[in-house]
Amino acid sequence: MDEEPLKHYQKRLQQLRDKAEADFAQAPALGSISAPQAVGLLTHELGVYQIELEMQNEELRLAQVALENSRDRYVDLYEFAPVGYLSITNTGLIHEVNLKAVTMLGFNRKNLIQRRFAQFIADDDKDRWYQLLQRYKRGDSEHSYSLDLQLIRSDKSTFFAHINCLQIKSTNNQLILRVAITNISQLKASSSELELLVRARTLELTDANLRLKQEIEDRKRIEAELEKSRIEFRLLVETMSEGLMVCDNKCIVTYINDRFCEMLKRPREEIVGHAAIEFIDETSQAAWSLQIANLKAGKVTSDEVKLKGPKGNGIWAKVSPSPLPDLHGGTVGNFSVFTDIDEHILAEYALRVSKNQLRKLSEQVMSAQEKERQRVSSELHDGIGQTLSAVKFCVEAGIKSICEHPTEESFRHLENVIPKIQHAIEEVRRISMALRPSMLDDIGVLATLTWFCRESSVVYKNISIQLQLDIKEEDIPVRIKVVIFRIVQEAFNNAVKHSSAERINIILKLVGSTIVLRIEDNGVGFDAKCVGSHGGVVSSGLGLASMRERAELASGIYSIDSTKGAGTKIQATWHRMS
């Protein structure tokens, strides 16, 4: 029943009573007025109270009507609700039931009142219902609770119901359990079908998920292998000793490796995006264009081209462009591997120059040998030959004189032969010393150099010859003693013949483990680049070439520094461990 109108009526009565008590408290005391006045006042007050009672009675009647209307509405709502309603006592007995609940259970209302609700619950769900009742009796549960139960109809058929329970207290302070029943059989059936569909779909999704997971794992494995291959390929390409250039079908560079950048001495940004022919030297562009034309015709050729670096610097490379296929059997461009053969080309050039030098040097050596033979022949003929002829004439004249007139004067005539023979001996010694001083083998190169400078000072009195020796004889290997003397001899002869020098310094010293020989003069000098250099240019004179040849054959390093008007410096060095 609806209790709101009753509460409102009780509240209104309390307000009227409070007002009457307040008015009575403000009324004058009866002892202060006369009896007639008091009677009149009481009569007036009784009239007021009568009116108030009539007003209260009218309000009670109106409240009763409102209460009955509210109760009728409640009954209609309760009876014709779309869900079943039951009121159950704390002992589990049905106290009230609406029409929907009667219809759902299939019993008459009188057959449901005071019957246990558990009788209409399937056996499998009764324990859950009893546990709910026990919690309500102990008062340790929430005020509301819901659960799904399987209920039994009067014809023993069952249906699934959703139960909403609310615990309240009745007017007599008894615990009442209000129960709302909703038939969810169709929902359960749909839920079961949906569950089956969900399970089937779940199985399909699980299977698909497993396949997808396997595909993902396979894809990740393939991607990892591809990434590994890509890294290995890129590492191989970037660390290969050859230069690699990739071009599109228009021969525009799309990729190069680090080695190609090193070969061209250009950064990657200056090469990628440009035509490949821009980096081929003009002397090799025709050969490159022919290779590309052959490649487009399906023929791969190899050739040597010169790459063009910055400021015209170039490097020779061997290259053979190859097609770069696509997935459809066509080509997306070409790639070229450039093998650095610059050193090979330079070596071939140096070999040709060396052969030319050797040929010319051989010719000069043969010419020098002939000149030396001619000089020795001339000295033998003009010097020793004439002296021996004079000796022969004197001996013959002396013998004839002794034979004809064997006197003391005839024997004294033979004594004139002795000076001539002595002169011949000195001439032979001079020629021998010029060819190879014997003291070089007897007392060493230091003493020989000292003798050479002393004898040269006698011959060339107008030249100051200074000899500086800062090395011991035992510090000089035997195999380079002759080399040192011949270089000094040749450099000295060149200086006195061509430089017009006034001073010649000869220095031989030991610096650490290096033997240093230096010959300096203050003569007119010459252009060393034109006459000869250590870079492979052929010398115009045999002397400079022979000095270089002697030094380098003895594992030494030869250099010459000369400028017109600034004298000449010739230096040769040998490492003692070489």
Automatic annotation (TrEMBL):
<feature type="coiled-coil region">
    <location>
        <begin position="205"/>
        <end position="232"/>
    </location>
</feature>
<dbReference type="InterPro" id="IPR050482">
    <property type="entry name" value="Sensor_HK_TwoCompSys"/>
</dbReference>
<keyword id="KW-0597">Phosphoprotein</keyword>
<dbReference type="InterPro" id="IPR011712">
    <property type="entry name" value="Sig_transdc_His_kin_sub3_dim/P"/>
</dbReference>
<dbReference type="Pfam" id="PF02518">
    <property type="entry name" value="HATPase_c"/>
</dbReference>
<dbReference type="GO" id="GO:0046983">
    <property type="term" value="F:protein dimerization activity"/>
</dbReference>
<dbReference type="GO" id="GO:0005524">
    <property type="term" value="F:ATP binding"/>
</dbReference>
<protein>
    <recommendedName>
        <fullName>histidine kinase</fullName>
        <ecNumber>2.7.13.3</ecNumber>
    </recommendedName>
</protein>
<dbReference type="InterPro" id="IPR035965">
    <property type="entry name" value="PAS-like_dom_sf"/>
</dbReference>
<feature type="domain" description="PAS">
    <location>
        <begin position="229"/>
        <end position="277"/>
    </location>
</feature>
<keyword id="KW-0547">Nucleotide-binding</keyword>
<dbReference type="Pfam" id="PF07730">
    <property type="entry name" value="HisKA_3"/>
</dbReference>
<keyword id="KW-0808">Transferase</keyword>
<keyword id="KW-0418">Kinase</keyword>
<feature type="domain" description="PAC">
    <location>
        <begin position="301"/>
        <end position="353"/>
    </location>
</feature>
<dbReference type="InterPro" id="IPR000700">
    <property type="entry name" value="PAS-assoc_C"/>
</dbReference>
<dbReference type="InterPro" id="IPR036890">
    <property type="entry name" value="HATPase_C_sf"/>
</dbReference>
<dbReference type="InterPro" id="IPR003594">
    <property type="entry name" value="HATPase_dom"/>
</dbReference>
<keyword id="KW-0902">Two-component regulatory system</keyword>
<dbReference type="GO" id="GO:0000155">
    <property type="term" value="F:phosphorelay sensor kinase activity"/>
</dbReference>
<dbReference type="GO" id="GO:0016020">
    <property type="term" value="C:membrane"/>
</dbReference>
<keyword id="KW-0067">ATP-binding</keyword>
<keyword id="KW-0175">Coiled coil</keyword>
<feature type="domain" description="PAS">
    <location>
        <begin position="70"/>
        <end position="140"/>
    </location>
</feature>
<dbReference type="Pfam" id="PF13426">
    <property type="entry name" value="PAS_9"/>
</dbReference>
<dbReference type="InterPro" id="IPR000014">
    <property type="entry name" value="PAS"/>
</dbReference>
